[in-house]
Design goal:
The complex is a heterodimer.
Chain A: H1 2-20, E1 30-35, E2 38-43, E3 49-57, E4 62-72, E5 75-77, E6 88-90, E7 101-103, E8 108-115, E9 125-134, E10 143-159, E11 169-175, E12 179-181, E13 186-194, E14 202-209, E15 214-218, E16 229-231, E17 239-240, E18 245-248, E19 254-264, E20 270-280, H2 282-303
Chain B: H1 2-18, E1 28-29, E2 34-35, E3 44-49, E4 52-57, H2 62-69, E5 71-74, E6 86-91, E7 94-98, E8 106-115, E9 120-128, E10 158-159, E11 167-173, E12 186-187, E13 200-208, E14 211-221, E15 232-241
Antiparallel strand pairs in B: 1-2, 3-4, 6-8, 8-14, 9-13, 9-15, 10-12, 11-14
Classes of the chains: A mainly beta, B mainly beta.
């Protein structure tokens, strides 16, 4: 009876351990999460909207400061000359920009943003980041580096009275080798430039078509700001940022076409370009010919 | 009897632990959008012209919404941003260098974890507020690495293994870190905001549904001439997703 009781208690403990363990909280760490990480807004001047951003703390209790920063082609800017837009406000009574608040372990706060571009505001894109920055711990009496963590929600605001957007783009580079080795990945470099006045995300595919079939790689809908040139990347295929190439794995033989087709967001502006290449096992053939060559030489020498 | 009871209990644990099938609300998704149960609204499509884009949801045509209400917000539908939060973790929150001994390099690790959910891409940038400094103003310089002719910079690492090369720097390890860290023993100095230097990318990806971990190794080596004291600074990390 005692054994049965012990096993039952042990079971209860194991089940409780499995189901009740707080997986999302990480001790001895700074761990903030934010949702949504991206907000895209199209708004008429003179109108007002509100948007809730959730910030949660899965790490140590910390002091957090909400900030509004500018986002440009060079990324997040900590420009001292940037004046915070007065038409973007925090509605919460107990929260304000540049005013710190305490966020306990496991706590979540909802920050309500009010966005109300005035009627006389220039009609264009405004890229902002609602940034939450943790205050580093007070230094102790030893040599140390304290860590400060910032996480942001990207807010892309298009102020327009008509809803019209001048979207345009061009493929500025489409490079593939004419001949590739059958057993090597295909190294491609497709650069896209945003030549319009507003941001977009490319939605489409890169299609690899051979004699016996085709493969589609879905493009990552990465953000292209006006004037920005970036590599087109695809899901789950590694790319080398340093030399800006995309490696498409596979075994190739014969004639192939590589086509990229996409639209700018869900619009009707469609961009497509195709290149042809040939795949032969030239590395294998070269090794075979080399072996054959040496074999013939050896054979000749033996005869002599 | 006892064995039977034990087996039943064992099966009970297994059932509780491994055979819980996750229950999802009605989800609709395509390559470009995902509507979860919480946001369920029949179906979706898009309306557009060459210079005009409005995505509509049945029963609430966006074009009409924009005309009548004057705004449209996408905070989850098109980029699936509402599905999962963007999580960013740095551990530990303080790096203790302990007692500094001249010509004896100290290396300490920081673990960086990121999960960008369903949005595309992320970037993590790092900087320091100032070089390691005491309250009296003594400073450990940022490293220039071993070769003075080819010093490491904020954007290009170089070899730093000699015990008589002094300073403070870092290297990165992981799948999405800058490629110049591929070589063992290669370090960079931090850009300092006090010198108006901009933060540099230490981890980056263009993909979505990424869960990446990076390891930052901080290295500190002091010279015999370094004044005794408690040297301190702040290292800042900034993470953004959906880029």
């Amino acid at each position: 009876m005692k054994k049965i009781l012990t096993i039952s208690l042990l079971n209860c403990f194991i089940v409780a351990l499995i189901h009740l363990s707080p997986c999302s909280v990480r001790a001895q760490s700074l761990s903030l999460s934010i949702a949504p990480p991206v907000v895209e807004i199209m708004i008429k001047p003179g109108k007002t909207i509100t948007q809730t951003i959730k910030i949660a703390n899965g790490g140590e209790s910390t002091i957090v400061t909400p900030l509004l920063r500018e986002y440009t082609l060079n990324g997040l800017q900590d420009n001292p000359n940037f004046t915070r837009d007065t038409w973007i406000e925090i509605l919460n009574r107990d929260l304000a920009f540049d005013k710190s608040f305490f966020l306990k372990t496991g706590e979540e706060r909802q920050v309500v943003l009010k966005i109300s571009p005035p009627k006389d505001l220039a009609e264009k894109d405004y890229f902002r980041v609602l940034l939450f920055t943790t205050k580093p711990v007070i230094p102790f009496d030893y040599s140390q580096s304290s860590i400060s963590q910032s996480i942001g929600s990207l807010i892309l605001i298009n102020v327009t009275s008509s809803g019209m957007k001048n979207k345009a783009a061009e493929i500025s580079a489409f490079q593939i080798p004419k001949i590739v080795d059958s057993f090597s990945p295909l190294e491609t470099r497709i650069l896209l430039k945003n030549t319009g006045d507003t941001y977009f995300r490319p939605l489409g595919n890169i299609t690899l078509k051979g004699l016996i079939g085709q493969t589609d790689f879905a493009l990552n809908p990465n953000l292209f700001l006006p004037g920005e040139t970036k590599l087109l990347t695809v899901d789950e295929v590694p790319y080398a940022k340093d030399n800006q190439t995309l490696s498409l794995p596979g075994i190739y033989l014969g004639k192939y076409t590589l086509t990229t087709t996409f639209t700018l967001d869900e619009g009707t502006i469609k961009i497509s370009q195709t290149k042809t290449f040939y795949a032969i096992p030239w590395k294998g053939m070269a090794i075979f010919l080399l072996i054959l060559f040496f074999w013939m030489i050896m054979k000749k020498r033996k005869r002599k | 009897m006892f064995i039977l009871f034990f087996i039943i209990n064992f099966l009970f644990i297994i059932q509780n632990s491994y055979f819980i099938i996750p229950v999802h609300a009605q989800d609709m998704s395509s390559q470009n959008f995902k509507i979860q149960g919480g946001n369920f609204n029949l179906t979706a499509g898009s309306k557009s012209s060459q210079h005009y884009k409005l995505t509509d949801v049945v029963g609430q045509t966006a074009a009409n919404v924009f005309t009548s209400k004057g705004y449209i917000i996408n905070a989850g539908f098109l980029q699936s941003a509402g599905a999962a939060p963007f999580v960013f973790t740095v551990s530990p929150p303080v790096v203790d260098f302990g007692v500094l001994t001249p010509n004896l390099p100290i290396e300490k690790n920081l673990t960086i974890y990121i999960s960008n959910g369903d949005v595309t891409g992320y970037s993590i940038k790092a900087s320091e507020n100032q070089p390691l400094e005491t309250t009296a103003g003594a400073e450990i310089p940022d490293t220039v690495c071993d070769s003075s002719g080819n010093p490491c910079t904020h954007t290009q690492s170089a070899k730093w293994t000699a015990n008589n090369t002094y300073g403070f720097g870092y290297r990165m390890g992981g799948l999405t870190v800058p490629k110049d860290f591929n070589k063992e023993g290669y370090y960079r100095p931090f850009p300092a905001t006090r010198r108006n230097e901009t933060a540099v990318t230490v981890m980056e990806s263009q993909a979505r549904k990424v869960k990446d971990t990076g390891l930052m190794t901080l290295r500190l080596n002091t010279s015999p001439a370094q004044p005794v004291g408690q040297y301190q600074n702040v290292i800042s990390f900034i993470a953004l997703a959906g880029i």
